[in-house]
């Protein structure tokens, strides 16, 4: 089994620091089912490739092991005569967790900031057993930001008329944090193989949620991923999906009896990112354009946006604020706050606070985000939020997103007149949102630009509305930077 990982980030040999594997050495690692080798076919300042080669010993794989709930070959000698030694599977996933343990956690003692930065990556698995074909590989990896090429391998190159085999040559390219890339592979390789080599116990739920932090809860195929990763054990899959639902409720509340906004209207394109992901990417782009370095996520929920902000080195201070303690607990878990290097921990803070009350800790920040927050307030409470955020805290830039009520007709199963979520107190039309934005901008000394997120329907507009408010005197708005000491003092 072979996996190669290439970067052109300069100096490219920094990949060795991230993987904690020296490019000038060939290293071996003993595995329960064989031996793993790590080496670098190329290592220059411009381009560096790390290769993970796993040699499987079929006898070691079969001896002393409880047979898995799902095995690749169902005949007497199946544990010895199979493709486990040649095709990427859960065995390769296990090797990743053993060999690249620090990299999977996003930890690098020598390059801590680079470990939190998205870098150009190209990953290839030349032989991957893929139950569901190349189309499924695209469905699973594309929503995570990868450009995916999954070429089916012929059953026999000498006899093309025999058709394709059950294997694909998988290539992924994208600009992704290395830890995220490895966790994507750790979860999805056994999912595509759909035949784990070991017994699946209840602790596999924690492994899945830990590796899937920041992406699995929003994945449009999260149910399929969960079932396959847990070897189709219904009880375990049910528990895992329930915990994922908690994470989704903390970020974009979508219970079973409301429209699944994360998936969006059915359009037959599995490669399209969910609306939640596209909304987050648009907010990140607006923050980057503002030049902000110190950002507050107001109503941060389970921390999906915080995770992305922390991964970008341009943000020197990232603050998550929520009124619900359980949401902050989820955010801390999602950020892996207790495992981050000290330098990373110093960049992030989580505060409990109600957005309808003035809070001195929130003053002096470059930017604040209200992503899918305002619609959860009673209209009578909006003036208090406006005063607390735009008047008292007064960040240089404020990014606001909220549903476009006109778009609701495009969601199948959402009755006319119903909101997308039972907790929504209102949902604005485009005209209503524009009126509110114009009013609060004029009252508090901001200029405003309004746009949309998601597919722009010629009749009803985009599913999400977005406004970027910029303080007229932007420098003065952020003239009182808060330090960690000031923040602690204000919170006493």
Describe what this molecule looks like in 3D.
It is globular, with a radius of gyration of 24 Å. α12 (304-310) links the parallel β8 and β9 (317-322). The N and C termini lie far apart (56 Å). The chain is α/β, with parallel strands linked by helices and 492 residues long. The strands form two sheets. A seven-stranded antiparallel sheet has the order 2-3-4-1-5-7-6. Residues 64-71, 250-258, 266-271 and 481-492 have low confidence and may be disordered. α3 (90-99) packs antiparallel against α7 and α9 (222-229) runs antiparallel to α10 (234-251). The chain has helices at residues 15-19, 58-62, 90-99, 101-104, 112-115, 133-141, 178-193, 203-211, 222-229, 234-251, 275-290, 304-310, 325-335, 342-345, 382-393, 430-444, 474-477, 484-490; strands at residues 2-7, 27-31, 34-43, 48-56, 118-129, 147-154, 164-177, 294-298, 317-322, 348-352, 367-371, 397-403, 446-453, 464-471.
Short key terms for the protein model shown above:
seven-stranded mixed β-sheet, globular, seven-stranded antiparallel β-sheet, 492 residues, disordered C terminus, single chain, alpha/beta
């Amino acid at each position: 089994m072979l996996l190669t990982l290439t970067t052109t980030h300069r100096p490219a040999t920094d990949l060795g620091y991230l993987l904690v594997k020296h490019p000038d050495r060939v290293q071996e690692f003993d595995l329960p089912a064989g031996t793993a080798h790590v080496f670098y076919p190329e290592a220059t300042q411009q381009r560096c490739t790390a290769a993970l080669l796993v040699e499987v010993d079929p006898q070691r794989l079969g001896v002393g092991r409880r047979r898995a709930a799902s095995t690749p070959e169902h005949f007497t000698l199946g544990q010895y005569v199979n493709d486990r030694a040649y095709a990427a599977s859960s065995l390769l996933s296990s090797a990743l967790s053993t060999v690249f343990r620090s990299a999977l956690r996003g930890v690098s003692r020598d390059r801590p900031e680079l470990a939190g930065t998205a870098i150009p990556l190209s990953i290839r698995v030349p032989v991957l057993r893929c139950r569901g074909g190349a189309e499924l590989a695209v469905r699973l990896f594309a929503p995570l930001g990868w450009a995916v090429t999954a070429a089916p391998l012929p059953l026999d190159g000498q006899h093309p008329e025999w058709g394709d085999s059950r294997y694909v040559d998988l290539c992924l390219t994208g600009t992704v944090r290395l830890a995220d890339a490895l966790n994507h592979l750790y979860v999805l390789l056994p999912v595509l193989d759909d035949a784990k080599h070991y017994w699946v116990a209840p602790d596999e739920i924690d492994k899945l949620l830990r590796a899937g932090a920041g992406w699995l809860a929003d994945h449009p195929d999260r149910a399929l991923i969960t079932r396959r990763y847990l070897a189709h054990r219904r009880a375990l899959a049910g528990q895992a999906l329930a915990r994922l639902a908690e994470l989704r409720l903390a970020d974009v509340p979508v219970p079973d009896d409301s429209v699944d906004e994360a998936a969006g209207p059915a359009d037959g394109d599995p490669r399209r990112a969910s609306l939640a992901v596209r909304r987050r990417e648009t907010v990140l782009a607006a923050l980057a354009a503002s030049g902000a370095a110190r950002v507050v996520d107001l109503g941060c929920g389970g921390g999906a946006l915080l995770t992305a902000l922390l991964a970008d080195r341009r943000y020197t201070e990232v603050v998550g604020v929520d009124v619900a303690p359980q949401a902050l607990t989820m955010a801390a878990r999602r950020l892996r706050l207790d495992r981050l290097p000290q330098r990373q921990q110093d960049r992030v803070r989580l505060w409990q606070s109600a957005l309808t009350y003035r809070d001195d800790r929130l003053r002096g920040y470059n930017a604040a985000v209200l992503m899918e927050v305002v619609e959860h307030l009673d209209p009578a409470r909006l003036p208090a939020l406006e005063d607390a955020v735009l008047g008292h805290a007064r960040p240089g830039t404020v990014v606001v997103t909220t549903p476009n009520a006109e778009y609701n007709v495009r969601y199948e199963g959402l009755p006319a007149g119903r909101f997308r979520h039972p907790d929504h107190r209102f949902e604005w039309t485009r005209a209503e949102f524009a009126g509110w934005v114009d009013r609060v901008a004029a009252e508090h000394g901001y200029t405003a630009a309004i746009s949309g997120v998601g597919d722009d329907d010629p009749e009803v507009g985009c599913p999400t509305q977005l406004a970027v408010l910029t303080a007229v005197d932007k420098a003065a708005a952020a003239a009182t930077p808060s330090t960690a000491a000031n923040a602690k003092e204000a919170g006493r």
